[in-house]
User: Fold diguanylate cyclase from Marinicella litoralis.
Amino acid sequence: MSILRTVVLGFSLSLSINAVAASEQNFKEIQALIVTEPEQGLAQAKQYWQGKAVSQENLKPGLLLVSAYMKNKQYEPAADLLERFMSIENLDPDSSGLLLARKLNQLRLSKSKLGTNHLFDQAREIIPVLIPLSALKNQQLALFELNEELGYKHYFAAEFNLAEPYFLEALTYIDKSKKQTLSNLLNSIGVVYAQQAQLDLAAQYMLDSIKMLEDNGLTVRSDRYQNLGSLYFGLKDFDNSIVYSQKGLDIEPEMTSRRASLFSNMAAAQVEKGDYDPAIENLKRSIDINLKLQHSTAKARNNLGIIYNQRGEYAKALEQLNLSADELDDSVNSEMLGISLKSRADVYAAMKNYDQALALYEQAHQAFTEKDLKLKRVELYPKMLEVLEIKQDYQRSYEILKEFKTLNDEITNVESTQKVNEVMAAFEVEKNKQALMDSELARAQQQKSIDLLNHKNELEGRITTLMTIMVSALLLLLLFILRSWRFRGKVNHMLLDKNNRIENQHAELSTLNTQLKKQTEIDALTGLKNRRYITQLIAEESAKEQKAQKQWCLINIDIDDFKKINDSYGHQRGDEVLVQFARSLKQVKGKNDVVARWGGEEFLWLAEMKGSHNGSIQCESFQSILANQSWFRDHDDKITCSMGFSSFPLIDLNFEDWEAALRLADYALYQAKNAGKNRWMGFELVDPKIAYDDIKDVENLVNGNRLRVLNK
Assistant:
């Protein structure tokens, strides 16, 4: 009897283990179905939950049903089930944390803001309780979701500096096997860094996000391309900004808010290129989609107003901008509020209503500063400075100019820009390498087929020799051999042709790589070297063991009042001025000098100096050439420039010397601008022991006779 009882107990235990395993398998299948077929997944999740009570033991199937409700946008039943679970007394910390995170997620996705503040306070309180238990899987999941939701709270409030630490903390707890979730988080971190003007880090995280999807055969959504388009816009690479916006549009369904946003982003880049007509059409498409979806049209109307302003149609501009502002009256988005204020200020400045313009600029400055939106502040400063100079408010102008200089140096420093370019180039090189590897693999497979065919041919030859002995089958064998040879010739010809095509593809890829490298070092409009070439040159010289002992002079050049040229004669004539200006610079430069377009209407001249000469001779020569040129067919207007130089002894050509020289030349350029333009100013080194940190206080160096000021 005891033996029978043991057998029965063993059989029951086996059935129990099998039932648990089957239940776990069913759970995972429903999880996958919720992602791929949301409606079917919801039906399965309801069946899986059927007959179960709300208790801590049934939390896992309960949260599965919540996920299915959320995926189908059925937020009310999801909220109801979450509330019932959260009302359970004496829940363990990881269950409380997980439920709290899902509740915050439900409120965010349903766009409900009722009663959220106390829930976020609870999230901040429970995180320290869970951290000591983070080795356990449930606690890791709760910590990831809580940090992610706290990050998104600040993210959607445009508080990007506050979102950053929560997203990075979420990254430490995320399940790395969930590639889609990981890619989403990497993309959000990239956006956070982009909004804080850390463009090198932004590029790295955004590209890692896309690569994660591509490497795992997952779909790359349009928002990834949209973010890359925005990043290129921040780098002023408007062509690539348009390319990535179009990539997003190619895969985004009709009548979605994302599609409307992509049209608006593309229009912004087209405006910068002076392509107003297609920009207006794209903005109208964006507005039409948002109106049909009953979504905000504020951003698109703001951009449309900017275009009308640039075309001098001020009434139309204010009409669109005021409609945009009306939608933003109750907005908590400081970034969009600031953009709206700046846009309206630009119109009033163009209409010469400087008091109204300045009041709006100050409000925009406050909105951008409160949220530390660095890129937006850099866009604001030039226009604001123009109005302050017209109003003769020199004290405020000086304060804004100092802010502008400090922030612009931070964003556009050589090392950061070089890192962005390196990240982008590395991504393209990786894709080219993958194409080469695929080509090599195809070639290896073709070679294997040839070897196999040759071996087969060898065997056929032996068989043919033996068969010829058999006189009775001679005619059949001859016929067989004839057909075999014909077939073999065709196959060999096909394989040879494929090999030739593969070799041609190798040659084409090599040529394309060479052309790509050349294109990344040349400014497309002027044909001069670009910023990337200069930074690469400095990097290569720094890496050499024996460096050339040369005296260099770094000259920074900026065309005076270039915006007025664009406004008066149009962007096409503005581009022609840039090309003619570049030709003049080539004409005056020395044999071993390097000239480059540094960005916009700013140029850089790295001149090799000999003896006791400084940059004054070069500056005088160039300004004399400009004065004697004819620039406009129907007008006698002249093009002038301001120049700042440093004869800093770039003997070692390391990045510290380079940054010092660039800082001095930049400072001299600003002084030349403020002194009335169409002039030059420079610095000559008196004390050879000046340290890099000393350059921060130029006035002190001049007063202490450690730097000599040279000017026109």
Summary: Residues 1-20 have pLDDT under 50 and may be disordered.
